[in-house]
Design a protein that fits this description.
five-stranded antiparallel β-sheet; four-stranded antiparallel β-sheet; alpha+beta
C-alpha cells in the first residue's frame, strides 16, 4: 500500500512539474530549444496582402497613408515597402482580417510596419469618426484624428540586429520574436512601442530558481540594445 502511494505521489509530482514547465515556456521564461541563435526566423511574417475593397475603406487607407506622410514626412516608396495593412474598421463594418465590433462612432486601422528586420504590430486604437452630435466627420477632421493617434514609430530608422537582440537575452525564449501569424495577425511578437523614449522595446524572461518560483523580467531597447528595466518576480501564479 505504501509503495502504491509513493508511486502515485511520484506521478503527481511529475505531472505538476510538466505543467509548471509548460506554463514557463508559454510565458517565454524558459526555452526548450537550445538553438536560440540568429538563424531563428521568428520575426518573419506572411504579409496579409490586403487591398481595400469598399469605397469607405479605400478612402480610409488613403487617409492613413496621407497622415503618415504629413506627420512624419515619410515618402510613398518607404510606406509602400514597409507598411502592411491587415484591416480597416468603420463602426461595425470591417474590411480585411479582423473581428467587427458594435460601436458606430469609431474606426481603426490594424497595420504592421517593418523597420529593418523588426515588425511593429499596431493592432489599432479607436479613432473617432463622428462628432459629438453623431454626424460623420469630414475627411480633414478624420485625417487630423488619425494623426493624433499615430505613434512616432515611423521616425525610427536604425535598430540593433536581430542577432544582437537575441544575444542580450541568451537562451531564454524560443523564438524570442514569435511570428505574426495569419489569419488575424493579432500575435504578440515581443516588439512594442515605448512612448516615454520613442523607442521599440523587447522583453527577456529568465528563470532564477524554478523551485522557489523566482524569475527575472527584463526589457531592452531595440534602438541601442541598452537595458531599460530589470525586475524579479514570480514565474507563475500559485
Amino acid at each position: 500500500m505504501k509503495k502504491a502511494i509513493k508511486i502515485i505521489l511520484l506521478v503527481l509530482g511529475i505531472i505538476i512539474a510538466l505543467v509548471v514547465l509548460y506554463s514557463l515556456v508559454m510565458r517565454g521564461a524558459v526555452s526548450i530549444n537550445k538553438e536560440n541563435t540568429y538563424n531563428n526566423n521568428g520575426s518573419v511574417f506572411k504579409s496579409p496582402n490586403f487591398s481595400p475593397t469598399k469605397d469607405w475603406s479605400i478612402k480610409y487607407v488613403g487617409l492613413l497613408k496621407q497622415a503618415i506622410k504629413e506627420k512624419y514626412e515619410i515618402d510613398d516608396k518607404t510606406i509602400g515597402e514597409n507598411l502592411s495593412i491587415v484591416s480597416v474598421r468603420n463602426g461595425s463594418q470591417i474590411d480585411g482580417w479582423g473581428i467587427p465590433y458594435s460601436r458606430e462612432d469609431v474606426g481603426s486601422f490594424h497595420f504592421i510596419y517593418k523597420i529593418e528586420w523588426a515588425y511593429y504590430n499596431s493592432l489599432g486604437e479607436f479613432i473617432s469618426i463622428k462628432d459629438g452630435s453623431g454626424n460623420d466627420l469630414t475627411d480633414q477632421q478624420f485625417l487630423e484624428n488619425i494623426k493624433a493617434k499615430l505613434e512616432p514609430v515611423f521616425t525610427i530608422k536604425n535598430i540593433i540586429t536581430e542577432k544582437e537582440a537575441i544575444t542580450k537575452c541568451g537562451e531564454t525564449s524560443s523564438p524570442l520574436f514569435p511570428p505574426i501569424k495569419e489569419p488575424w495577425y493579432n500575435n504578440d511578437n515581443n516588439i512594442s512601442f515605448y512612448p516615454p523614449s520613442n523607442d521599440l522595446i523587447f522583453s527577456c524572461n529568465k528563470i532564477i530558481n524554478m523551485r522557489e518560483n523566482r524569475c527575472l523580467f527584463e526589457k531592452f531597447s531595440l534602438l541601442t540594445g541598452s537595458k531599460l528595466s530589470s525586475q524579479e518576480g514570480t514565474c507563475w501564479v500559485q
